[in-house]
Amino acid sequence: MSNPTPGAYARSSLLKLEFPQSLAVYDDYTTAQRTVDFLADEGFPVQNCMIVGTDLKQVERITGRLTSGRVAAGGAMSGLWFGLFVGVLFSFFGTGDTLAIIASTVLLGLAFGVVFALAGYAVTRGQRDFSSVSSVVATRYEVLVEHKVAAQARELLAKLPGALPNPFS
Fold this sequence. Notes:
The chain is an alpha+beta fold.
């Protein structure tokens, strides 16, 4: 059995309320954040609040079609940057022409970047011929408050135009 890291208890206790009660439920994080900000502006002790995202889903946005040219260009750019990084490090500790060291490592990095990117693309050819970005997002955001200040929070929230009260409270 392993011991938790020194800050683990402090972190876990920061992410808990003793007896949380739901104040309101929103479809987007911005509205939940606006609610807590409003409570803060009204002098409410917001350290008794939490915003909890629920009903998680993964969203993947397709950004384009992958072609050999795009893969090679991406490999070239990452190889170029890595080569530049290595070249600058070598130039600090090496003797000789600094510009030649940096230029040679940049060219080697570029070449290796292209070769490895194209090799990786060839191995997975046909299985995923597109590029994308993905994120895990919540579909609902619930504002929770400590039970001892829930009535005060509801009273203040009633003043906020457009605030959605929790129908279950």
